[in-house]
Amino acid sequence: MEIGIAFDLKADHATRSGEPDDRYEEFDSIETVEGVERALVRGGHTTRRLGGGRRFLESVLARPCELVFNLAEGFGSRSREAHVPAVLELLRIPYTHSDPLTLAATLDKAVAKRLVASHGIATPRFRVVESIDAAKAIDLEFPLFAKPLFEGSSIGVRKRSRVANADELVVRAGELLADYGEPVLVEEYCSGPEFTVGILGNGAKARVLGVMEVVPKLVPREEFVYSLEVKRSDDWRNEIDLHVPPRRPAEFVARIADLALMSFRALECRDLARIDLRCDARGEPRFLEANPLPGIRPGWSDLALLCELAHFEYDDLILGVVDAARERWGL
Fold first, then answer.
1. What are the structural domains, with CATH classification, of the chain?
2. DSSP string spanning 214-270?
3. What's the predicted TM-score (pTM) here?
4. Tens-place pLDDT, residues 117-138
């Protein structure tokens, strides 16, 4: 099968003066594209790089593929992740990963929280802040956590995202509003252990690939932020440990896995996703966000590291996504 790869490369975009240095953090590295290509070729497929944006449009219009492996994050709106799959649906070209509705709904963190909450899944109390005045009027319990409403890849998530009082919130919310030009999600900070869960497949066949706990080494857990500074660090292994499975009772780990799978299904994710959860001060798990286009850079991205620690081969991950998509599309 000829499989086109849709992607946006970070290297194609230079941060302009006045922009935050993580503006294009969602975009992929060439190592991701090459890793996916190698896995697909080893699985017997041929590949074609489609790129993203106008290049993607021109490529797919000139010569459609049998299937598109979608990595494209898009740019410029809260529905940016829906751009490529919406075009592919218009052209009736099959593709991997979630559909435009799920991608748009999950990128807006408040929408995702409301959806999972409607299915009985607990999430921290939150507010959407669109102005400094709204930040000053917040009625949640400190400490709080502030981040851009519709970004991923820890864009805007820094160690100072955890705010201890009203003054800190006003400062941080003001920075985020100015830097990203979008509303700010403010939620009650969860001080317990943090987990991320990889899920592969669809419907009743969706399965948990592994549960990974992110364990801080340099700061107390109740103050830890899994921030961009940590993820970008060349010595991140000195800042955190990654435990797969978590070193916790099997019943508790199973509960985390079940909540993630419930969230995956509530949001109608397809083929692959990573679900982030964290426990509150009482030890109760809470849904944080869903990542239906999770990073899969070999040896780097959280999901790739999770699979590595779970002894699940990278090629099997990529080919598993393709198999799940082919089954959905009847290919």
1. 2-96 (3.40.50.20), 106-121+191-329 (3.30.470.20), 126-188 (3.30.1490)
2. EEESSS-GGG----HHHHH-TTGGGTEEEESS-SS-HHHHHHHHHHHHHHHHHTT--
3. 0.95
4. 999 999 999 999 999 999 999 9
